[in-house]
Amino acid sequence: MSSFKAIVIRKGEAGQTVGLADFDESELMEGDVTLRVEWSTVNYKDGLAVTGKAPVVRRFPMIAGIDAAGTVETSNHPDWKPGDRVVVNGWGCGETHLGFYAEKARVKGDWLVPLPAGLEARDAMAIGTAGYTAMLAVLALERHGLTPDRGPAVVTGAAGGVGSVAVAILARLGWTVIASTGRPEEADYLKELGAAEVIARQELAEKVRPLAKERWAAGVDSVGSTTLANVLSMTRYGGAIAACGLAGGMDLPTSVAPFILRGVALLGVDSVMCPQHLRREAWQRLDTDLDRRKLAKMTEEIGLDGVVEAGRRIVEGQVRGRIVVKIG
């Protein structure tokens, strides 16, 4: 068996350590498909994992990284053969199953999605879990029957990964997008992505009222806590908010008022264990509904040796848009 380079998280008496190291192929976990990983990405959850800021990692040693795009090397799964181009997100990879900041990975074939014909592997990882989650949120709003003629859509944490992609997708679909950010210096960037209006995060950080003035018909929230509570209180009658993140906290200091007096819906969006049919729909829609020029504007590229520092920056709110990781 050979070894390969990987970002490995270990835990000892002195606590968690993380760094680029050699990892023996014999230590890969069970799976019926072996991948040559070509690209990965840095999501907020990856940042939490490599910094140890939250208990994301559940086994040690762990190869970090929850996303991969690459090529099938070997397969005992009926749906995949050597040479197939694939994407994988979630399923506990980088948490309970060895992840993708590595030159090689072994996974279950049932976790894989074909790389859409119109996407390069690098593009897929520029999208990554953050962008795929944003698309799942948009699909949830559409399934609820919401359309751009109902009014504006708000996006919180708009300069982050989920938010940047959500702004770009919603704008392309014809929505008037109101982008909320704690980084006012990113206003021009958000307008380039398609935001019609940029508001300060502080507007959604004040004490929550049961009902506030109606401002939007839909929204994508990756912040949670007081921000989400205020967004709900400002949602128009019959509107809905897709919640997909907790950067601001896991609590939700709201009341039943938006739900029983305005018929507002709170739509939960999970990307980790999402069923395959929704994954495939999301990736096909990302292929058609995300402007590649806007994707390029929000993306920076690093190598494996830059992952740990990028993880620190994303947790500290210093990352704009998306980071792709070139493997090998």
Summarize the topology:
Elements (H helix, E strand, L loop, with lengths): L2 E10 L2 E10 L8 E9 L2 H8 L10 E2 L3 E9 L9 E5 L14 E4 L5 E2 L6 H23 L9 E3 L5 H12 L4 E5 L5 H7 L3 E4 L15 E6 L3 H9 L1 E9 L13 H5 L3 E4 L7 H14 L2 H6 L1 E5 L3 H9 L6 E5 L2
Parallel strand pairs: 9-10, 9-12, 10-11, 12-13, 13-14, 15-16
Antiparallel strand pairs: 1-2, 1-4, 3-5, 3-7, 3-16, 5-6, 6-8
Helix pairs in contact: 1-9, 2-3, 2-7
Protein name: Oxidoreductase
Pfam families: ADH_N, ADH_zinc_N
InterPro entries: Acrylyl-CoA_reductase_AcuI (IPR014188), ADH-like_C (IPR013149), ADH-like_N (IPR013154), ER (IPR020843), GroES-like_sf (IPR011032), NAD(P)-bd_dom_sf (IPR036291), Zn-ADH-like_protein (IPR051397)
Cα-atom radius of gyration:
20 Å
Per the CATH scheme, the topology name of the largest domain is Quinone Oxidoreductase, Chain A, domain 1
Main sheet properties: 7 strands, mixed
- Helix amount: 25-40%
CATH class placement of the largest domain: Alpha Beta
InterPro entries: Acrylyl-CoA_reductase_AcuI, ADH-like_C, ADH-like_N, ER, GroES-like_sf, NAD(P)-bd_dom_sf, Zn-ADH-like_protein
Protein name: Oxidoreductase
Organism: Rhodoplanes tepidamans
Domain Enoyl reductase (ER): 15-325
Describe what you observe in this structure.
The chain has about 325 residues and is α/β, with parallel strands linked by helices. It folds into two domains: about 5-115 and about 300-325, Medium-chain alcohol dehydrogenases, catalytic domain (Quinone Oxidoreductase, Chain A, domain 1), CATH 3.90.180; about 130-270, NAD(P)-binding Rossmann-like Domain (Rossmann fold), CATH 3.40.50. The protein is about 30% helix and about 30% strand. It has nine helices and 16 strands. Strands 3, 5, 6, 7, 8, 15 and 16 form a seven-stranded mixed sheet that branches. Helix 1 crosses helix 9 (about 305-315). The protein is globular. The mean pLDDT is about 95.
